[in-house]
From TrEMBL:
Residues annotated for GTP binding in this entry: 103-107
Residue ranges of domain Tr-type G in the record: 21-292
Keyword GTP-binding attributed: yes
Organism superkingdom: Bacteria
CDD domains reported for this sequence: RF3
SUPFAM superfamilies hit by this protein: EF-G C-terminal domain-like, P-loop containing nucleoside triphosphate hydrolases, Translation proteins
Gene Ontology terms describing biological process: regulation of translational termination
Record-given protein name: Peptide chain release factor 3
Gene this chain is encoded by: prfC
GO molecular function per UniProt: GTP binding; GTPase activity; translation release factor activity, codon nonspecific; translation release factor activity, codon specific
Family, per entry: Belongs to the TRAFAC class translation factor GTPase superfamily. Classic translation factor GTPase family. PrfC subfamily.
Source species of the chain: Mycobacterium helveticum
Keywords noted in UniProt: Cytoplasm, GTP-binding, Nucleotide-binding, Protein biosynthesis
Subcellular location: Cytoplasm
Length: 542
């Protein structure tokens, strides 16, 4: 055994607790175009990770592209894959924190991917476009957060552009999703005329000062109410009046209600001008939860100061031409991770050497030597690791599996060149292990023509693109006319398979899935044969 793989030196429990306490691990959830990429850049800019906006998510017209790595993403200008961004931040009250921002795909077809990322965060920022309010994808992602009991900070963005009334937006949040909004800042100036915000905690005016093109962190001035009135006049007085209404309505920040997902602190920003971004970071530091004990599969709690444990929430390969390898992202749940540690892979109980750990910042990777609870480690070429797997040292722990969503689209895949069957099988298996696609098989269809199942049709595009590109095995896809799926059991297969418009296949995890052409057919069969097992799978949305 090389000295690099020697038994690790343990960190004291108090050090682990202190490091975990400094971590804030969160994701931004939003409908496409609400400004998630712009906000991510702005956050990193404020934390001085980058000096000029545009270095992380370069879209058309901005500088380089760091996280939108796939050709397809570039062509479409959407972010399909997730990235982990880590930066240090000192808040206004002098607290030193480490922020872990996990990026989530914007497109609804990748909601399963987003769901996996949300298993790895302690908090979510719900980003809303001030002109549009709650949009379908925001609602869908919000439901996932609620189900997972993830506290939510709401950010109303694009306040520099004409939009809706602030009080009306709060009503919409409360009315449609049942979260009580408790604004921490309030805009001075209507949407489209953004001067700054009234800080409801101090009563002061935080005035934002524009920089050329929003390219650098916006300076701000903190003014007392008299100076605010002098400078912003009626806009200030209106903000004061509206805040009085909020106070009278009891819309004050309530930490236990926020942590219990009953209320949401609200902030107003213009990500493109970098306005309000410092306030968001400060709220994350002051109010967002730090990593806490996690429940294992058997109901046991793994406290953060226990020995190292982590779970894989994402597996990704072929990230760019320079790194054609496979990366498993794991979120640390307890203890300290030191590169070179030999940990146990819970699924196989086999030792797993972590010599090649990296932190991934957009496309840049650096060797990662140490990680604490809340941090994300990228394990290179970890072919044994699957989404949901647990790694640990010391006492055995296995965290709950990450459920697979109910697919709604199905297609038979075949290798365009039938002599490349082995490569075809390898490629499909790889994409399946990454969670790009689910794979179903049956004796009737044979191994050369597996059925691919997806939550959204873009997953098929990604599969085709990657099979033909980096995996060098172009495929053809034949779409199948099924849209509903139920889980069944061996004794019901014969009957179901004999029905028209129904087919039973086995998913790689062993689940028997009955596919139906439409929900009416499924419902008739279910009504006429209540003895059959036809259990719904987890739906991709409400
Ligand atoms: P997404 O990741 O959520 O999909 O959104 P993204 O950041 O790409 O933002 C979508 C569009 O909204 C971009 O404009 C972006 O500049 C703009 N935007 C984001 N935040 C704000 C804001 O606070 N105020 C205003 N006025 N605009 C904002 P685009 O024209 O699509 O692209 P670009 O050429 O400006 O980059």
């Amino acid at each position: 055994m090389s000295s690099e793989l020697a038994a690790p030196e343990q960190a004291s429990a108090s050090r682990v607790i202190a490091e975990a306490g400094r971590r804030r691990t969160f994701a931004v959830i939003s409908h496409p175009d609400a400004g998630k990429s712009t906000l991510t850049e702005a956050l990193a800019l404020h934390a001085r990770v980058i000096t000029e906006a545009g270095a992380i998510h370069g879209k058309a017209g901005r500088r380089s592209t760091v996280s939108d790595w796939m050709d397809m993403e570039k062509a479409r200008g959407i972010s399909i894959t997730s990235t982990a961004l880590q930066f240090a931040y000192r808040s206004a009250d002098g607290t030193d924190c480490v922020i872990n921002l996990l990026d989530t795909p914007g497109h609804a077809d990748f909601s399963e991917d987003t769901y996996r990322v949300l298993t790895a965060v302690d908090c979510a920022v719900m980003l809303i476009d001030a002109a549009k309010g709650l949009e379908p994808q925001t609602l869908k992602l919000f439901q996932v957060c609620r189900q997972r009991e993830i506290p939510i900070i709401t950010v109303i963005n694009k306040w520099d552009r004409p939009g809706r009334d602030a009080l009306e937006l709060l009503d919409e949040i409360e009315g449609r999703i049942g979260l009580r909004p408790t604004p921490l800042t309030w805009p001075v100036g209507i949407a489209g005329d953004f001067h700054g915000v009234l800080d409801r905690r101090s009563g002061r005016f935080i005035r934002f000062i524009r920089t050329a093109g929003g390219a650098t962190a916006a300076p701000e001035e903190h003014l007392d109410p008299a100076a605010a009135e002098e400078l912003a006049g009626s806009a200030w007085l209106q903000a004061v009046e509206e805040c009085e209404l909020l106070t009278a309505d009891g819309a004050g920040f309530d930490s236990p209600a926020f942590l219990a997902c009953r209320s949401t602190p609200v902030l107003f920003t213009s990500a493109v001008l970098n306005f309000g971004v410092n306030q968001l970071l400060d709220v994350l530091v002051q109010h967002a939860p730090s990593p806490a004990a996690k429940v294992g599969r058997s109901g046991d709690l793994r406290p953060v100061d226990d020995e190292f444990s982590a779970f894989v929430f994402k597996v990704q390969a072929g990230m760019d031409a320079a790194h054609r390898d496979r990366l498993a992202y794991a979120r640390v749940c307890s203890g300290v991770f030191r590169r070179g540690d030999i940990v146990t892979h819970a699924a196989t109980r086999r030792p797993f050497a972590t010599k090649y750990a990296q932190s991934v910042f957009g496309q840049q990777r650096t060797v990662l030597d140490t990680a604490w609870p809340g941090d994300v480690i990228g394990l290179v070429n970890a072919t044994a690791l699957r989404v949901g797997d647990t790694l640990y040292r010391g006492d055995h722990v296995e965290f709950p599996a990450i459920p697979q969503f109910s697919p709604e689209h199905f297609a038979v895949a075949r290798a365009a060149d039938t002599s490349r069957h082995k490569a075809f099988r390898r490629g499909i298996t790889q994409l399946e292990q990454e969670g790009v696609i689910q794979v179903l098989r049956s004796d009737r269809r044979g191994d050369q023509a597996p059925v691919l199942a997806a939550v959204g049709p873009m997953q098929f595009e990604v599969t085709s693109h990657r099979m033909g590109g980096e995996l060098h095995t172009p495929i053809s896809l034949e779409h199948l006319n099924y849209s509903v799926v139920r889980r069944t059991r061996p004794e019901d297969v014969g009957f179901l398979d004999a029905q028209s418009g129904v087919e039973v296949l086995t998913r790689t995890d062993g689940a028997l899935l009955a596919l139906f052409s439409d929900k009416w057919r499924m419902e008739i069969i279910q009504r006429n044969h209540p003895e059959l097992m036809l259990d719904p799978l987890i739906a991709a949305g409400p």
